[in-house]
């Protein structure tokens, strides 16, 4: 069953439960954000594929953990041509932290997305970033804030917002709520399987004036070309750049890298940002 219609994976339920426990922060952040669409345009003008490279030390679908200094990893991603970065701040399942994001954002000159599972307005105030993530499916859960309210609350603080979807119906919800940057996640939160066909199916429902990001399961230049041909303005890539192997991947070429030993993060990034896409 598709996660947008029913059950979500036990690992995802655990992520949600932990997100509820974490609560928020006192006080209210005020962010001076760098433009994410502007960074994508700058990358294009420079001949690079716009890639948001993700500092993701571990996850429920990856084997092992990268324990390198996240700031060094982030700098290597920028050196490899990343237009922007995504930094996990979720501690319990992804090995992230707000402090990591603060350190990375202070060290690089590209926009930084806070990758976490924000359910309530006060959770926006935990740490400053250029972009925050709101996941439509998670905000269907009981005792979570409304998507449109959270979007407005985030913008009032100066954040840009990446609204993550998995189906055309979720895209419609995101548009109705006022989203200007939409991600289509190839990872199904029900089975945690990745299928690049998801982006191809959902992308046509996203209006032209929206900045559209293909998320998850992108591992090779062929995958990049496939997502760009399907309309992606940019790509969000974690595991392949971190050099950790993902499991349960279908419909893409990720199986080809299952033996990866981590590799050089700069080279991993460059391989995807220098792909010819026209
Ligand atoms: O990455 C996971 O294992 C995961 C599990 C459960 C919920 C969310 C998960 N990932 C969040 C993401 O959106 C990805 O980290 C991101 O799109 C990058 O994906 P990938 O390139 O496949 O690492």
From TrEMBL:
Domain named Indole-3-glycerol phosphate synthase: residues: 17-243
Pfam families per UniProt: IGPS
InterPro entries listed in its UniProt record: Aldolase_TIM (IPR013785), Indglycph_syn_Halo_TrpC (IPR054875), Indole-3-glycerol_P_synth (IPR045186), Indole-3-glycerol_P_synth_dom (IPR013798), Indole-3-GlycerolPSynthase_CS (IPR001468), RibuloseP-bd_barrel (IPR011060)
Pathway the protein contributes to: Amino-acid biosynthesis; L-tryptophan biosynthesis; L-tryptophan from chorismate: step 4/5
Single GO MF annotation: indole-3-glycerol-phosphate synthase activity
EC number from the UniProt entry: 4.1.1.48
Family label: Belongs to the TrpC family.
Protein name: Indole-3-glycerol phosphate synthase
Reaction(s) the record says it catalyses: 1-(2-carboxyphenylamino)-1-deoxy-D-ribulose 5-phosphate + H(+) = (1S,2R)-1-C-(indol-3-yl)glycerol 3-phosphate + CO2 + H2O
Location of the region described as Disordered in the Swiss-Prot/TrEMBL record: 246-278
Gene name of this polypeptide: trpC
Keywords of the record: Amino-acid biosynthesis, Aromatic amino acid biosynthesis, Decarboxylase, Lyase, Tryptophan biosynthesis
GO biological process, one term: L-tryptophan biosynthetic process
HAMAP family: IGPS_A
Organism whose genome encodes this protein: Halomicrobium zhouii
């Amino acid at each position: 069953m598709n996660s947008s219609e029913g059950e979500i994976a036990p690992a995802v339920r655990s992520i949600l439960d932990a997100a509820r426990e974490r609560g928020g922060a006192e006080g209210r952040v005020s962010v001076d954000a760098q433009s994410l669409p502007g960074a994508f345009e700058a990358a294009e003008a420079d001949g690079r594929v716009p890639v948001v490279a993700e500092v993701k030390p571990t996850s429920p679908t990856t084997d092992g953990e990268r324990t390198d200094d996240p700031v060094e990893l982030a700098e290597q991603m920028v050196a490899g041509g990343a237009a922007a970065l995504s930094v996990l701040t979720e501690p319990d399942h992804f090995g992230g932290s707000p402090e990591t994001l603060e350190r990375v954002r202070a060290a690089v000159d590209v926009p930084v997305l806070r990758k976490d599972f924000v359910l309530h307005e006060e959770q926006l105030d935990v740490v400053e970033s250029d972009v925050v993530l709101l996941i439509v499916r998670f905000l269907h859960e009981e005792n979570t804030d409304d998507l449109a309210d959270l979007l407005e609350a985030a913008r009032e603080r100066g954040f840009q917002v990446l609204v993550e979807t998995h189906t055309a119906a979720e895209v419609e919800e995101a548009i109705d709520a006022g989203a200007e940057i939409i991600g289509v996640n190839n990872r199904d939160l029900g089975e945690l399987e990745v299928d690049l066909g998801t982006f191809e199916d959902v992308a046509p429902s996203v209006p032209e004036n929206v900045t559209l990001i293909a998320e998850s399961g992108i591992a090779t230049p062929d995958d990049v070309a496939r997502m760009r041909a399907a309309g992606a303005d940019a790509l969000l890539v974690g595991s392949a750049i971190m050099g950790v192997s993902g499991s349960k991947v279908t419909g893409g070429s990720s199986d080809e890298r299952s033996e990866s030993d981590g590799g050089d993060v700069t080279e991993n990034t460059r391989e995807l940002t220098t792909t010819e896409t026209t």
